């Protein structure tokens, strides 16, 4: 029978758990390359006395086309590159195998899901708004949250990370107009540059304070008092620009100025830090793009942010979240680090619903997707301190924060439809979201 | 008060796991705002879950001293000029037939409403039945044959009471123990309700029955003309989070350690949070204003336990316990709440605090759920003795669980046979069928002890799950 991608790695680790004695007793990495083909790389100082050619054949039988060509077991010295495998940030330990063995899965996109965090120690509280699928009211909710926080006198920095389909700028900055006749070079009320520009300029060493200043624009949304919303759009307002050529360069992994290779997430984190240093905001809201993507990987797992996960109650959505969380489960450290900051949001909840019934159903359906994030309780050692929840538990991450959708917010353009910034309307629809953000902020500032 | 003094007070003032019986300390009387109507003399039906205070209020009404205290402290003047007689209470003896006598009466074809009519007549007109009639069949027979004369005397008695400005109340409790089959229980219940409806024409001769919700919910109980007139007056003994905390303050302010309780009352007042109104200088009650003031009560609890349950998830310490202790219907038994807090205080002694020290450690509050779960099991087993056989085979089950996995455990353990063959003073719910172990789930669901998911899987609330040794599913292996 043909061996397919999914069972191959599992079959190997299963086999290895009972044959560890055949292999060198030192550090070892199971590497799955870009084709999904697998081989073992062992640190060369340790000899294996029992690994024979016969075992190579056995591997062909076990893995089929997913056995890498050539030698299955390769020995590399630490200076020959072994450490670049063994110490890769997304190499993880697999249950049942020796402590000094790791698995490294070479991914093309989204590989940063399992990377360690890259947030500096001191940064303002960050909130990521993310939706597995688009069109679930994410950017609207983010804009309303920014307005709510600004009304409390806070300085809010809002960054559009939805580079593939930018939208936040259009909500919070003046409507894009046609080229004016007086020879303007940029949209009025927009910053010249956007986040995309930072990546291309950074690649040639020009992402300096001057550029960063030209990426930030205060929103004309009127807020009484000291509060202010600063917007960083994905694309700037310059008329003459080729957005697509810039965008296609954003995700490149490039060495930084000291020549140390950086992945996309490291660069993004630097951009955000620079923006934070410029604005000195009380709170940062990040509008992450939808889908299982590079940007979301970084936003959800590496920025040390609160993650508000938007969802509609559909099979597709839950299957997607479950796939995502199950991937994190490969490296439990990631889950332990991230799971407490996850909040689930139902943004398009019809206001007329029976609120309790809606919450119960929604939470119940979300529950299965969230199970991979929770601690597995054992019979022998019950402990109250576990991160485990029942389907209907009030404070569980899978219990939704509901935005009770009102027609007023049907087509969101707060600068045009002033009713959308009416305090009563906003409270009706968004009070659960607002109060959760408030309490997260309070918690963060207390800690 | 420093955290350790507060911990000591929690330990002394709050009840332990060991005994589940209701205390009758005067200082423990707390009246949640929803309970006024339950005590009021014009409400014939009071519905309450196990441990919600049915027996507590019955005993408080019957006892003159407690009744007067309640009348004074909670501003219920009608209680001061009334007299209360017990019409049924399986935990005490009185002028009413016991379950065995009731069974015989039913078997011999006596109308249940005739039985209750006689019980009530005898209570309101103690001299009317000739003293030589000792056996219940004879009494009932006599009252039936003398119905005209009895009715006249009742009218006269009522008129006299109106003139005196007094009320006579007969109260019934423990009605789930009327009979050992569900069917007989229902028949007797219906008879009682019918009789209560008959008596509702008397202004000063009142009846009141304390009933478990699942009994009143059985449609057979309501199957008599005009039942809705009576049922619509039913009052539910609810315990919202604020009521549970109110009860806790009450216990803390009136403990056996007079000095500690006095410091605690000062501690409350020093924060400008609470005022205590002394009844006579020895008992202290939460003022009505504070009773409804969630933000001030919450602020005080936050001083004792901190604001959040820690971690980024946070969770408010104030809502955490009521949420985690509630059953599938959202009901939290006050006793389980108090026990959870007491054991949390004891557990907090050995905990290390990161940051400011509080009397209660968040981890200890979480641990408190297991003590609460234990006390809840006691309460349940006391009220529903057969429940033990149901949960025993579910030990180790990971939740939520497929329906067939739950049922097959019962099938393997022959749980249904055990349930049906063990005789118990409390009848099995009628939902439990003789042939289908899955019927147990229906019964548990109605009792608020389990919950069915949309896709048919079964889940149990923590308050029963923890003590029954069922676990929660999760993807992350727990680090040793």
Structure explained in plain terms:
The complex is a heterodimer of chains A (447) and B (480). With 447 residues, chain A is of the alpha/beta class. In chain A, 34% of the residues lie in helices and 15% in strands. Chain A contains 14 helices and twelve strands. Chain A has helices at 5-17, 53-63, 82-86, 138-151, 168-172, 195-203, 209-213, 243-247, 264-279, 294-301, 315-328, 332-338, 355-370, 423-446, and strands spanning 28-32, 38-43, 73-76, 101-105, 126-131, 155-161, 217-218, 228-232, 283-288, 306-311, 342-350, 401-405. In chain A, the strands form two sheets. In chain A, strands 7-8-6-9-5-10-11-12 form an eight-stranded mixed β-sheet, with helices on both faces. Chain A has a four-stranded mixed β-sheet with strand order 3-2-1-4. With 480 residues, chain B is α/β, with parallel strands linked by helices. Helix content of chain B is 49%, strand content 8%. Chain B has helices at residues 3-13, 36-39, 54-62, 64-73, 99-107, 112-124, 136-145, 147-164, 182-199, 213-217, 227-231, 241-253, 258-270, 288-291, 294-305, 317-325, 334-348, 362-383, 387-391, 403-412, 415-421, 439-446, 462-468, and strands spanning 45-47, 82-88, 167-172, 205-211, 235-236, 276-278, 284-286, 398-399, 451-452, 458-459, 471-472. In chain B, strands 2-3-4-1-5 form a five-stranded parallel β-sheet, with helices on both faces. A two-stranded antiparallel ribbon of chain B has the order 6-7. In chain B, helix 16 (317-325) runs parallel beside helix 18 (362-383), helix 17 (334-348) runs antiparallel to helix 18 (362-383) and helix 18 packs across helix 23 (462-468). Chain B is flat and about 75 Å long. The model of chain B has no long low-confidence stretch (mean pLDDT 91). The A-B interface holds A 95, 306, 325-326, 329, 332, 335-336, 340-341, 361, 364-365, 367, 371-379, 381-395, 397, 439-440, 443, 446 and B 307-309, 311-316, 319-320, 323-324, 328, 363, 366-370, 395-396, 398-400, 451, 453-454, 459, 461-462, 465-466, 469, 471-478. Chain A: It comes from Polaromonas hydrogenivorans. Chain A: This is AAA family ATPase. Chain A: Keywords: ATP-binding, Nucleotide-binding. Chain B: This is ATP-binding protein.
């Amino acid at each position: 029978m043909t061996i397919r991608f999914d069972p191959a790695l599992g079959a190997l680790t299963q086999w290895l758990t009972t044959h560890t004695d055949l292999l060198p007793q030192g550090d070892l990495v199971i590497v799955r390359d870009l084709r999904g083909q697998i081989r073992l790389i062992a640190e060369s100082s340790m000899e294996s006395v029992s690994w024979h050619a016969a075992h190579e054949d056995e591997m062909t039988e076990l893995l089929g086309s997913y056995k890498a060509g050539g030698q299955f077991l390769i020995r590399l010295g630490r200076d020959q590159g072994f450490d670049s495998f063994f110490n890769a940030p997304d190499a993880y330990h697999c249950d049942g195998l020796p402590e000094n063995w790791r698995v490294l899965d070479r991914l093309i996109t989204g590989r940063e899901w399992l990377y360690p965090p890259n947030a500096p120690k001191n940064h303002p509280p960050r909130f990521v708004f993310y939706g597995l699928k688009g069109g679930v009211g994410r950017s609207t909710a983010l804009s309303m949250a920014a307005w709510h926080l600004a009304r409390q006198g806070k300085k809010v920095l809002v960054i559009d990370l939805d580079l593939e389909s930018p939208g936040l700028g259009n909500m919070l900055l003046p409507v894009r107009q046609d080229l004016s006749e007086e020879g303007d070079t940029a949209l009025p009320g927009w910053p010249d540059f956007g986040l995309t520009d930072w990546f291309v300029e950074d690649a040639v060493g020009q992402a300096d304070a001057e550029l960063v200043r030209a990426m930030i624009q205060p929103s004309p949304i009127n807020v009484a008092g000291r509060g202010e919303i600063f917007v960083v759009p994905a694309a700037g307002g310059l008329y003459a620009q080729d957005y697509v050529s810039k965008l296609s360069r954003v995700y490149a992994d490039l060495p930084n100025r000291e020549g140390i290779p950086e992945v996309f997430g490291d660069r993004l984190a630097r951009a955000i830090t620079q923006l934070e240093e410029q604005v000195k905001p009380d709170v940062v809201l990040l509008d992450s793009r939808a889908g299982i993507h590079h940007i979301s990987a970084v936003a959800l797992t590496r920025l040390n942010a609160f993650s508000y996960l938007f969802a509609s109650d559909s099979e597709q959505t839950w299957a997607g979240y479950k796939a995502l969380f199950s991937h994190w489960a490969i490296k439990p450290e990631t889950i332990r680090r991230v799971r407490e900051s996850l909040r689930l949001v139902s943004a398009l909840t019809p206001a007329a619903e029976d609120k309790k019934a809606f919450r119960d159903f929604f939470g119940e359906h979300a529950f299965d997707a969230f199970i991979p994030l929770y601690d597995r309780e054992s019979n022998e050692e019950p402990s109250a301190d576990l991160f485990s929840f029942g389907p209907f538990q009030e404070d569980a991450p899978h219990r939704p924060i509901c935005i009770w959708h009102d027609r007023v917010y049907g087509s969101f353009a707060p600068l045009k439809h002033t009713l959308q910034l009416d305090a009563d309307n906003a409270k009706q629809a968004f009070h659960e979201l607002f109060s959760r953000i408030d309490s997260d902020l309070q918690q963060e500032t207390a800690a | 008060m420093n955290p350790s003094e507060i911990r000591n007070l929690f330990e002394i003032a709050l009840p332990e796991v060991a005994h589940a019986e209701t205390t009758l300390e005067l200082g423990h009387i707390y009246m949640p705002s929803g309970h006024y109507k339950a005590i009021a003399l014009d409400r014939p039906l009071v519905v309450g879950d196990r441990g919600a205070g049915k027996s507590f209020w019955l005993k408080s009404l019957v006892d003159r001293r407690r009744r007067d205290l309640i009348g004074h402290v909670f501003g219920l003047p009608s209680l001061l000029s009334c007299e209360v007689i017990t019409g049924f209470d399986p935990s005490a003896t009185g002028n009413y037939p016991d379950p065995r006598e009731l069974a015989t009466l039913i078997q011999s074809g006596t109308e249940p409403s005739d039985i209750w009519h006689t019980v009530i007549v005898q209570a309101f007109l103690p001299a009317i039945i000739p003293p030589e009639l000792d056996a219940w069949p004879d009494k009932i027979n006599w009252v039936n044959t003398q119905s005209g004369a009895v009715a006249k005397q009742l009218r006269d008695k009522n008129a006299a009471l109106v003139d005196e400005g007094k009320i006579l109340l007969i109260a019934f409790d423990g009605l789930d123990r009327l009979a050992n089959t569900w069917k007989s229980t229902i028949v007797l219940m219906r008879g009682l309700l019918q009789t209560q409806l008959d008596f509702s024409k008397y202004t000063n001769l009142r009846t009141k029955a304390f009933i478990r919700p699942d009994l009143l919910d059985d449609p057979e109980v309501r199957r008599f003309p005009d039942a809705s007139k009576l049922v619509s007056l039913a009052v539910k003994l609810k315990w919202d989070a604020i009521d549970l905390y109110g009860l806790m303050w009450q216990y803390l302010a009136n403990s056996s350690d007079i000095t500690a309780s006095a410091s605690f009352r000062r501690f409350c007042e020093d924060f400008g949070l609470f005022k205590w109104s002394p009844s006579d200088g020895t008992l202290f009650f939460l003022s009505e204003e504070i009773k409804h003031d969630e933000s001030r009560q919450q602020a005080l609890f936050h001083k004792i336990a901190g604001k959040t349950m820690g971690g980024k998830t946070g969770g408010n310490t104030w809502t955490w316990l009521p949420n985690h202790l509630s059953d599938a219907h959202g009901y939290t038994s006050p006793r389980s709440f108090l026990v959870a807090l007491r054991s949390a205080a004891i557990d907090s002694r050995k905990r290390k605090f990161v940051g400011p020290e509080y009397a209660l450690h968040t981890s200890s509050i979480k641990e408190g759920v297991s003590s609460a779960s234990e006390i809840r099991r006691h309460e349940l087993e006391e009220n529903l003795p057969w429940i033990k056989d149901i949960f025993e085979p579910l030990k180790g089950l990971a939740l939520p669980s497929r329906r067939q996995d739950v049922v097959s455990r019962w099938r393997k353990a022959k749980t249904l046979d055990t349930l049906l063959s063990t005789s118990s003073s409390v009848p099995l719910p009628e939902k439990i069928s003789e042939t289908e172990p899955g019927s147990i789930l229906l019964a548990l669901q109605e009792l608020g002890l389990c919950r069915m998911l949309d896709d048919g899987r079964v889940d149990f609330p923590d308050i029963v799950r923890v003590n029954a040794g069922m676990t929660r599913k999760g993807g992350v292996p727990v680090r040793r």
